[in-house]
Amino acid sequence: MCPDFTYTYGTDYMGNLYPTGPMCNIGGVVISVYCGGDYIYCPCHGGDDRYRRVDALTEKVSDCIACNFKECLEAGERRMHELLVDAAEIIRNTNYELLCDGYYRAGRREFTLSVAGRFKGAVRSPMERRQAEALECSMQEALDSFRPSEVLPDIFVDGSRVCVSEMDFDNLEFVISQIGNVGIDLLWHTNVCAVPQYNYIVAGILQNLSNEIYLYLRYFQECFFEVRTQFQNSIHSAAWASEMGTHGFQGAGPRWRNDFF
Amino acid sequence: MASINLSELNRIAYIYERQAEACVRGIEGFYDEITMLAKKTAYEPLVNFTNQIYEFYKGELREHLKNEFDRWYNSEYSFQALSRNIGAGYAAVQKSQSAMDEIGAHLMLMFQRGPNKIYVDTMEPQVEDRDFETFSNAIFICVRNCEYANQNALSEINMMAMENNAVSCITGFVRSLGISMTQSFQGMIGQVEDGLGMFRVGVGTTIEQVPNVGRAVDGHIIWKKGMNFL
Asked: Which of A61, A66, A224, B199 has the most Cβ atoms closer than 10 angstroms to its Cβ?
């Protein structure tokens, strides 16, 4: 989280509010905050005294890009964890080993995203370059810590109590499909980044992350679909073969002993 | 909608146990009836045929059903094959196997019980056509009892199979068991009719050889006038 801050406001010629001199309170020390620029970082991300901006027209308070990005990713990871907990619960109740294997196979997929050079390429002055480096470093850190595989809930199944139906697969599919929404939700966060020239960079990173999340979801779906197909085929072929395997008695049976007639 | 619940396999074994129990009861009732008949008639072919049924039950039929069971046990539609094919894991395969072993044990129990061989003094036989009819009727009742037991088991299993597809794996075997039982006993009806025919022919031939008594037409004795007191 960014440090606490307060604002003082003025009004422009049309009567709109705009911040004139926000004050930042970091550990009890009040620092004057420059709010005229477009680059916003909090001090912990390389900003000197500029880290927030209030949009004069919308009055929307924008967070530090890096903090916002990190929070956004953390929220996404939390939501993803919740969904994985739900999925794990469904699988645990089925006690179905193959499904459990599919879950681990898909869930352990790693995300590989890099932000190296994205911001540095968009700045000119040495000061901005320093801030861009700090920003990249911070964002990369946030991206690296976005590891659903590390928060993947563990499942222990008791195969002797397998109880699985198509409905479990349907429920699982629904829960997993929600992971796609996590990626979409991330994209909304691009709108709260107030720096126009950085906005598209952040949007690009989040878009890539969203794509990765979508692939993660697809991988889950593929694994579960594979299990479901094997499950259905096995059942149907077993039922069919069982009917085909019906044989009556073809033997001779008891006979009269003719020597008595 | 496909679904599997391996916890219900014990229930299937129980259904099968009841089916086998009902079949054995039907067969025991039938065997009591024909044993009584064999003792009453003291007619050696009938006594032998009754013992043939005993031998058939403990031998050929047992072997046939054991083979049917083994075929199911080792097939791709056994419980354990299903567990293996759906990837339910080692514990599930073990559980399925033990459920099948239980069913196999019930099958063998069917043959540990059931009829026993009979020994009758056949020096003074007393037999008539009606005895063969009684024999046939006893078989009919036995077949009906077996059919009834099988239908009950099948309908119960089919009901379960609607919610648990693992159950459908045993449907073929249960049906096969029912068909084998009814077919083998139904086959005996033809044998009894054959026996009746042979009995009539035997009696007719003998009567024809006795001068001035009567003649045999289509296995029926046409007595000469005044001879029907025989």
From this structure: A66
Instruction: Please state, in angstroms and rounded to a whole number, the distance separating the CA atoms of residues A172 and A157.
Output: 16
Indicate yes or no: pTM above 0.90. Answer: no
Instruction: List the one residue out of A74, A96, A60, A20 whose CA is nearest residue A185.
Output: A74
| Alpha-carbon distance B229 to nearest alpha carbon in chain A (angstroms) | 25
- Domain end call among A62, A78, A95: A62
> Is A183 in the same domain as A102?
yes
CB atoms B198 and A247 under 8 Å: no
Q: How far apart are CA A259 and CA B198, in angstroms?
A: 11
* Tens of pLDDT, residues B190-216: 888 888 888 888 877 777 777 665 666
Test A227 with B87 for CB contact under 8 angstroms. yes
Q: What is the ipTM of this complex?
A: 0.72
Contact B1/A167, CB-based, under 8 Å? yes
Instruction: Please count the structural domains in chain A.
Output: 2
Question: CA-nearest residue of chain A to B181?
Answer: A249
Residues counted in chain B: 230
Going by their DSSP bridges, the two strands A61-62 and A53-54 should be labelled as: antiparallel
Q: How far apart are CA A124 and CA A190, in angstroms?
A: 23
Residue A248 lies in a domain: no
Residues of chain B contacting A251 with CB distance shorter than 8 Å: 60-61, 64, 184
